[in-house]
Amino acid sequence: MKDSVEILCIGTEILLGNIVNTNSQTISRGLADIGMDLYHHTVVGDNPQRLKEALETAFSRNNIVITTGGLGPTYDDLTKETIANYFGLELEMYEPAREWIISFIERSHRTLTENSLKQAMMPQGCIVMENHNGTAPGAIIEGDGRIAIMLPGPPKEMAPMFRDQVIPYLEKRSGRVLRSHCIHFFGIGESALEYQLHEQMEQMTNPTLAPYAKEGEVMLRVTASATDEQQAEELMQPVIKQLYQQYKDYIYGMDVGDLQTAVVRMAAQKGLTLATAESCTGGYVAKRITDVAGSSVMFHCGIVSYANEVKERVLGVRHETLEQYGAVSEQTAQEMARGVRRVSGAEIGISVTGIAGPDGGTPEKPVGLVYIGVNSDWHSEVLKLNLARNFQNERENVRYLASSNALSLALKTILAKK
Amino acid sequence: MKDSVEILCIGTEILLGNIVNTNSQTISRGLADIGMDLYHHTVVGDNPQRLKEALETAFSRNNIVITTGGLGPTYDDLTKETIANYFGLELEMYEPAREWIISFIERSHRTLTENSLKQAMMPQGCIVMENHNGTAPGAIIEGDGRIAIMLPGPPKEMAPMFRDQVIPYLEKRSGRVLRSHCIHFFGIGESALEYQLHEQMEQMTNPTLAPYAKEGEVMLRVTASATDEQQAEELMQPVIKQLYQQYKDYIYGMDVGDLQTAVVRMAAQKGLTLATAESCTGGYVAKRITDVAGSSVMFHCGIVSYANEVKERVLGVRHETLEQYGAVSEQTAQEMARGVRRVSGAEIGISVTGIAGPDGGTPEKPVGLVYIGVNSDWHSEVLKLNLARNFQNERENVRYLASSNALSLALKTILAKK
Predict the structure, then answer these.
(1) Residue from A31, A13, A32, A6 nearest A153 by CA
(2) What is the pTM of this model?
(3) For A94, which of A38, A122, A298, B332 could close a Cys bridge (C-beta 3.0–4.6 Å)?
(4) CB distance A304–B276 less than 8 Å?
């Protein structure tokens, strides 16, 4: 019978709605990537009886159960006990885990308590997974054609353990490796891309193409299944090459993570510096650029000129420009980009001015109207955009999309430099 | 028997990890607020057989099942059919729903298809819930002591229907209303607060107190159950008053949402303006302030002085200060706060300078060392903080906590103004 998985998350805090269950999503996506069948998610609280019943239900319909949570030191962390009991196994002290826990607690200057060592008690004969980001080890129990994979609850501990230890374990079962690349698009909608690639996507079996939408961006994942990594790469390369040819104006990078990382890397590579002058985004563009470690080599200065007076005084936007065209105008955007270049000495000046809402819109200048300006020796322009999408959180949406468009224009300008 | 609920979400996109299951969180939180017992979340794909089995499992352990998803127009939307069948009911055309759907589609300039009207087919005798944000109505079926509540999948349709129609329905069953207030703390850890209030929280039954941790902040929810809203308020007031007395240095507001909203509201109320000079946070403080609609009255200018040269040239930090003490120092923070006040003309200048990492740390100035400065006519000071927490995403963490501390210091300064 083909393997199928159930995800069983354990934690009263999920049932109380205190946290959103991102672990299920992380695991689901990872399983989809390697082509594992997954038909059920379940969540139960820290209650051994309900956990036991949920485990029985899960194994009645799937042969692999991945749990998260309940591996910690407190009295209500009972996942290992309950699952070991299901398999008829005892817990025993696992020396290496005991040592990691002691050294981890010492390194983080906390006090070792008896409870902490409970985390080193592991089911007999299980595969122990090291936790590189916390104290509780993970465990895999195999028995009777069933597999229980226990992961810690905190996402920052769970995700790396799942990626680095569970995925290879499951791949080994299947005898295949799956590798993928993410191609990042900006400026084309998911539905447009899906429409254009629909037929191709339907026909492809290996590699496969799957689009993922993120506010204002699309990520296209190319995934190949092969006997080894090299063969997987060889399967993917022709498809990637074709996509780059077909969509060169929209692709901003491969496996690059996000727009700001692409901007920082490309500017650093070309030895260019960039400065920002922001009105409606209020520092969002600067914040996103400086999210990227190493951005200090290419980003020296950002000005948030929320008030007109600051546009004039700090950036040197002319009083007449503001009077005649208003703060939200092509002319102001142009002068802001030029002004911040002058103030900062950067090679590229980027500006954003617009109406983020919810108030301040007029029939001529509605909420969502945004001008993005760029100024450099080799390329200068101003984009006029309407970013209103009638979303519930329109202000955040307009600001985010405006910052993305500013980053995209910055990248285009960096790439245009000979 | 006391009511207990199971949430059953239907959608293959959740199992593929394409979306995170926020609906379960929204519903869980709402049920916790009104004191309903919830022991299980389940997710299945758009598969009628597995949905049927999951429904049977859910009703074997709970008497109320709330579903999301599968109410739409496509062939794989089969929730109503499956659940009606479970209750032995037929679907029939519900005229008012048919009319809403037609008028909704006309208003949004789309084309009416036969499929769309499938959404107006409702189980016989059910309670129909109008959808004010989409086309698919919700439904409640009662029978044999069991209740199935069907909600649409898109969160912006689901959440208002749940809040405005399901919660009152469930409250009516219990004959009680639950009301709550959120008290926001900054500068005290969840465990410290929990430790101090532990006994009190254990003993309280009405109102109850529950702490929720958010990075660097704690929210304490006070919830009262009563026969009406006024009685609920009367039950909560003494507890709230006592908390304010006990924790006046840590509480930054009630029902205020977040630190930046508290800062903006309080500054606007006092007619004060504020300007920011940021180094390691790179615009994060300005971005958070301008997240708040209406911030333009109190925030006119922010300077991101990532490079020393900009600290000197734009903010007027003295070259000798940077030479002698370095960019990350009490003296530089002081001069940045003073400088941005001068440049902007604001009453309050806030500065942040520190080492966000991952690189740039030294034994004397490690990653996480941050100075926060404030300058005003009535209050000036510099805080020295170490914000490293050994997290995986340390850079983001240090930057976020630094911005929170800057907002907290700004609020303190605003409040200190006579």
Answers:
(1) A13
(2) 0.82
(3) A122
(4) yes
